């Protein structure tokens, strides 16, 4: 029987009703008591790492989860991480970069309703996560939710209340879970590189969502606080020109200061292509910028934080950014 470590971080699945609203109150042992059938699948041991609403989880916690997996990696056959849904996609993407070439599964799951409520998705999601974690051929970071197995770099929360909260953006599900069986759509080869854990993340990365009429002076403000800027542009990507070159000049100043500029799109599907319109092509031909293509915003942010945590050399940043990891980039 395989051994799985259940790492609890809080989230709705562990929450109870308080005078302050829902907040995590259940320990992982309490959660497992609501699903005794798991004991027939595998031997589970528990680690309470955090007890936070995922809104309050950030880079330090991502590093903490990775560190916990690293510390217990040799002792277990797989890992299930209980996590709130709101930032689960960010955590899954971050772990995909912090833990590379893992030959064991690291599964994130949670729920839209607490596990001790009468109507909940928690029991199914948790059972499915253990089912996937013990299955031969499961490895690397993924999210298991509503019967879908999604690559950690491709997940995005697209619904705030419904059971089918997550979607795999512009990439097939790795598998689905039906009738207690794992049905695989993607059969990856086992990792060929050495298992590697990273221990640093750069926090000085900002995501700017363009809005019509935005003042280009925002770049000067951000320059005092950040070393890299990811711009979520409109459509396939570009910079506005409101009868002047304020944006181009501001970006020129940003790049000349040695800071990194990355272009993506705020459109959920199909990615960017800055070569289509003048507003994008002009920028790409004038300045050295990176383009996200079909990477999700969550993967883009966390990948850049991981890279810049290890190097400040632009050529090396560029090489790593365009090197696919865990299915995060296809069209570059």
What this model shows, in words?
β2 (15-18) and β3 (21-24) form a beta hairpin. The termini are far apart. It is elongated, with a radius of gyration of 21 Å. With 332 residues, it is an alpha/beta fold. Strands 4-1-5-7-8-9-12-13 form an 8-stranded mixed sheet, sandwiched between helices. A 4-stranded parallel sheet has the order 15-16-17-18, with helices on both faces. The chain has a two-stranded antiparallel sheet with strand order 2-3. It has 9 helices and 18 strands. The longest helix has 14 residues, at 59-72.
Task: Please name the defining characteristics of this protein.
single chain; 8-stranded mixed sheet; alpha/beta; elongated; 332 residues
Helix-strand layout with pairing:
Layout (H helix, E strand, L loop, with lengths): L2 E8 L4 E4 L2 E4 L3 H6 L9 E10 L6 H14 L5 E5 L5 H11 E2 L4 E5 L12 H13 L5 E6 L2 E4 L3 E3 L8 E3 L6 E4 L2 E4 L11 E2 L7 E5 L8 H6 L4 E6 L12 H11 L3 E6 L12 H9 L3 E2 L5 H12 L5 H8 L11
Parallel strand pairs: 1-4, 1-5, 5-7, 7-8, 15-16, 16-17, 17-18
Antiparallel strand pairs: 2-3, 6-14, 8-9, 9-12, 10-11, 12-13
Classify the oligomer. single chain
Summing up helix and strand content along with how strands pair, one would put the structural category as alpha/beta
Q: Given the C-alpha coordinates, what overall shape results?
A: elongated
Beta-strand residue fraction: 25-35%
Order of helices and strands: EEEHEHEHEEHEEEEEEEEHEHEHEHH
Order of adjacent strands in the largest pleated sheet: 4-1-5-7-8-9-12-13
Q: How far apart lie the N and C ends?
A: 42 Å
Question: Sheet bearing the most strands, described?
Answer: 8 strands, mixed
